[in-house]
Amino acid sequence: MTKTATAADSYLRDPRGLKSWLLTQDHKRIGLMFLVLISLAFTLGATFALLIRTELTLPGPTIISSPRTYNHLFTLHGAVMIFLFVLPVIPASFGNFMLPIMLGAKDVAFPRLNLASLYFYAAGMLFFLLVLVLGGLDTGWTFYPPYSEQTPAAVVLAVVGAFILGFSAIFTGINFLVTLHTMRPPGMGWFRMPLFLWGLYGTAIIQILATPVLAITLLLLGAERVLDIDIFRRDPVLFQHFFWFYSHPAVYIMILPAMGVVSEVISVFSRKHIFGYRFIAYSSIAIALIGFLVWGHHMFVSGQSKLVGMIFSALTFAVAIPSAIKVFNWLATMYRGAIGLAPPMCFALNFIFLFGLGGLTGLFLGSLATNVQVHDTSFVVAHFHYTMAGGVLMGFLSALHYWWPKITGRMYSLSWGQITALIILIGFNLTYFPQFIIGARGMPRRYFDYSRLLEAHPEFTFYQIISTVGGYLFVGGLVLVAVNMIRSLFVGRRAPANPWGAATLEWECASPPPRENFASPPPVGDCYDFDGLEYDEQIRGYVKLP
């Protein structure tokens, strides 16, 4: 099979039949099925978000009649988006698909474990769907006791679903860690790996070390509710410590793979070797390790001592340094580069801008004095979405546009990809930037009706209207992305093996890849050296110089 062919022996068609997909051990098929399931979860979470945003447009009840229903909506939005989308989306889908190919390998170290991680994800997803029809969930996505032990909502189903999803994450992390340690090809030392793989490596460390803490915490919470025993009931702050010990490192489970994607895309579309490779690689590990030490900044108002608060504040500022190292190295890579604004690059630039704003506003939350002022306000909502949606979602969209030709063998409309990137950027900022303003002025988060606040702050309604308009524009841009991608499956031209001129190994095989990835092990070179590639007009892609 040639690199430009899309023959019947691609992974999509070999072997055929539903059973071959459901029982597959092919990392590519597993990654693609993860992508489909996670996209469905994202659609559900985005629907909840749009309903919340519509409700908040004007004071008083609008489309939602009761505060309890509103509580269910924002809780399910948060739980679905966190546990079913932002945590697994890049590692489980693109990580599974690309990691072995970027190593020149045939599969991950444990293919059966990989398939098990998919089914654990599907089972956890099913439990969250059951929550929708068997009582809902109104605790907030954090499940804080004592309310989570008193509400009639389906808390036990939700924590069991999250517990099962934890196994999926742990299995994925083990697979990635072992694959990277044992299956690198000859000539690919640690510092010749693509930076996306460094991001996955740091993510795997966190998944393996932190996820069991959340799993045990949720198991204890469920046992306390079912068996009526005292664990967190008399000390709810203990639950917060356990929960955030996992959940702040989980922020880096979400963001490190997205940073790896941006490192790949920035270099390729600047046509320059990545600047400061070792600094970016080491910063991924530094983020993974320091991230375990900063959970207390979520608890500045929980009664902890001033000394402990100061220590956590200092550590919070410290964890920003490795992230800043990445940003400055990306900017240095682009400096005097031949920048091409293809859709993957547009979304990567969106990532840098939005994540930069999210990170800078995080400094206010890391500072004791300002954190107390804006705690539990819309400022926190905006910061969280600038880092998670502006970071993880933009990284996901960049990866989707970057690797879509490799995954499907089809090219999408590049012009529509650029337009959607602009629409999403405008819509996102219209949605969330006003929340910084009203949050700093005292608008609480999770309020169903803010009419009592309008006497002191009549401008809140204006900002909420802007946010809702932006929300619809934002979601409209995401719908256009889906249309562009799905349309390409039917009318898109066939993708060449290397449409972007990248130098990592996944672009050495055909688009879509054959079942075994490579007929023979590909030669390992500098994955950021583009001098040996030239554009071929005939195939509309890049080929190696003879």
Give the SSE layout:
Layout: H1 18-22, H2 27-55, H3 67-86, H4 89-102, H5 111-133, H6 147-150, H7 155-182, H8 195-227, H9 236-270, H10 277-290, H11 306-334, H12 343-366, H13 368-374, H14 378-408, H15 414-440, H16 460-491, E1 533-536, E2 541-544
Antiparallel strand pairs: 1-2
How would you characterize the overall build of this protein?
- With 546 residues, this protein is an all-alpha fold.
- The protein has a single domain (20-544), classed as Cytochrome c oxidase-like, subunit I domain (Cytochrome C Oxidase, Chain A), CATH 1.20.210.10.
- 65% of the residues lie in helices and 1% in strands.
- It contains 16 helices and two strands.
- Strands 1-2 form a two-stranded antiparallel sheet.
- The mean pLDDT is 94.
Q: Tell me the radius of gyration.
A: 23 Å
Give the strand order, joined by hyphens, for the main sheet.
1-2
Determine the strand fraction and express it as a percent band. under 5%
- Summarize the helix and strand pattern as letters: HHHHHHHHHHHHHHHHEE
How many helices does DSSP assign? 16
Q: Catalogue the unreliable spans.
A: none
Distance N terminus to C terminus? 20 Å
Helix coverage percent of residues?
Answer: 55-70%
CATH architecture: Up-down Bundle
Mean pLDDT: 94
Count of distinct strands: 2
CATH overall fold name: Cytochrome C Oxidase, Chain A
CATH superfamily: Cytochrome c oxidase-like, subunit I domain
Question: How many structural domains?
Answer: 1
Please tell me what the overall shape is. Answer: globular
